[in-house]
Amino acid sequence: MLASVKEFFNSQKRTEELEQRPIKQVMRRRLGVRPTIDYDVPDISNFTHFLDCEVSPFICPMQWEELNIDFDNSDRRYCEYCDKYIFKVDNEYMLKEHNSNNECIAISNELLEKINGKTEQEKYNKLQNRLHLSKLYLVVKKYEPYFWETLQNENLSQEEILKKTITMILDTNNINFYIEKNVNMRFILEELIPNIKTQ
To answer: b/e map of 92-117 (b: 16 or more CB within 10 Å)?
Structure first.
């Protein structure tokens, strides 16, 4: 009963957001703001790249498809959240090149599988953790916007952000929902949470 009620209100909220989108675009034109291309962001469960870009203390909660297109360079996009260019990386050569320049990257899930065993274990583990946390935070940002906004307004460490997020998911009994959205909750609960340093 409670789940169906929650689903109903969530669908109502999404409908309202879609109805307001054209109004926002008209207002942007009237204010002289350069119009942006309006396209649907793919479902989080289907995303092909994750961002290895850190806005302390947050892991960037954006998808490659959400970033502003750079028409001069198809391999990079501008992230308004980070205020940086993000470079798309699909092979090991590009990964090494952009890492040596300390640039933010959008790394493909396929490449992460390819470099397993070919790169330092510590670096691989960091990227793997980033993949799982990126998916988690993308879902939270999209489906729990008020909670996400509250997190951003608090002065928290990455460990505290993760603990609060997991506590919220457990309190609302929404683990299955996150699993359906392709978030690896088993990995997060069994590998990441136990390694959080206690204050």
So the answer is: eebbeebeeeebbbbbbeebbeebee
Which of 100, 104, 34, 26 lies closest to 71, judged by CA?
Answer: 34
What is d(CA 90, CA 26) in angstroms, rounded to the nearest whole number? 37
How far, rounded to the nearest angstrom, does the alpha carbon of residue 2 sit from its chain's CA centroid?
28
Q: CA 134 to CA 49: how far, in whole Å?
A: 10
- 3-state secondary structure labels for all residues of 133-175: HHHHHHHHHHHCHHHHHHHHHCCCCHHHHHHHHHHHHHHCCCH
The model carries a pTM of 0.69
Task: Render pLDDT for 60-117 as a digit per residue (tens, 0 to 9).
Answer: 778 888 899 999 998 899 988 888 899 999 888 888 888 878 888 898 888 888 888 8
For residue 70, the tally of other CB atoms under 10 A from its CB is 13
Instruction: Give the rounded distance of the alpha carbon of 118 from its chain centre.
Output: 26
pLDDT in tens, 29-54: 444 444 444 444 556 656 778 888 86
Per-residue pLDDT tens over the stretch 129-145? 888 898 899 899 889 99
Spatial separation of the C-alpha atoms in residues 17 and 137, rounded to whole Å: 20
Amino acid identity of 54?
A: E
Task: Return the structure tokens found at 20.
Answer: 């307001």
